[in-house]
């Protein structure tokens, strides 16, 4: 079953820990970040001078064997798990990217999406640059390498940050040091941890926990951090007009055990469920989550409503991404393989189903039918987020065309999915969960108000594949 969810972007991990098995620790870190990208995985290790790299398509555990890891010896490393937002799902686009530059080798792992990536790529190609991938991440590394003429990497990163727009958290690797940078709006999460005498950076704190590192702090929006034998050193903090942390990290992307920019994701999700119950409470018997992403919000809903929480849908966690779905019949069966109703819990009950979001509505439709077939008396579908009405240009793979809420009213969507009622958490209610920190959030996919101008509005996942003819200005 193809999940009807916005697709995650990527996960980034970096470690500076001479004397430790940095490749293995990066492997563990990436394992914890697997939910952020399942298409490819890679680790680049530096030994003080050179960088060694291994990356392939597949899950972390598929890409790295014991033998592969034992060959990656060094003092510092960066790692990446990828879901493609620009550039196809192809081995050449797997990260980290590693290049020979004028001042030595350079590796880069990137999470996010440049909203002017297409323009910058065209400019680079117009000057004769030769690019090997179709990702905006290569634009970043190319710019940094070009701007590093005086072998002052922090200054080159800073200058690059003045040119690129949109969302990016990056871990950069040279032969003997690591840099971490976060865009001035702080779209994607990025944190710093300490591991013995070493240091770790990661997209989420769950990766720090996985390697036994202690959380030190979030990397600041706009910050350029250098990590070497002297420890972490902040070179600059580029300012933006505001912050714009992606609210979807809390709704769906990040793991509930992660802390992102001052909030525990699980607690936020629970509070969203409580808020939902304050806004909408039909006469019902049980609250059933759509596993796994709806579970925490459903608990909050059950607490606030006093209704019984029932695990009425069971998820088979072993249905992989390679599941083949050639026909409608098999596609329907695919839902049953991934999700199965617990008939004894459901039959004769009025059910409130809690999910985090709807993109196309196709999976919600199947879930409602599945519950009715299992004997549910009434099915009310509730979402712990507002309707998604606009595409994201900051690292999430959604397009206006596929967003059901961009084209239908709530009533029409309710009819489409076949529920007795449909309720979305209001935007006001969502923001209330964050108190005064709500002003630091990006909610553009719900409101249409984009915090960063979208220069390349026509840029899609495959724009970078199209040839550039002539000189482009
Ligand atoms: S548009 Fe939506 S998904 Fe994209 S960064 Fe903003 S809140 Fe997140």
Account of the 3D structure:
- With 473 residues, the chain is α+β, with helices and mostly antiparallel strands.
- The chain has two domains: 10-244, Aminohydrolase, N-terminal nucleophile (Ntn) domain (Glutamine Phosphoribosylpyrophosphate, subunit 1, domain 1, 4-Layer Sandwich), CATH 3.60.20; 263-447, Rossmann fold, CATH 3.40.50.2020.
- The chain has 17 helices and 24 strands.
- The strands form six sheets. Strands 3-2-4-1-10-9-11 form a seven-stranded antiparallel β-sheet, covered by helices on one side. Strands 5-6-7-8-12-13 form a six-stranded antiparallel β-sheet, covered by helices on one side. The protein has a five-stranded parallel β-sheet with strand order 18-17-21-22-23, with helices on both faces.
- It is globular.
- The structure holds iron/sulfur cluster (SF4).
- Iron/sulfur cluster binds next to α17.
- Iron/sulfur cluster is lined by residues 187, 246-248, 392, 394, 396, 442-445.
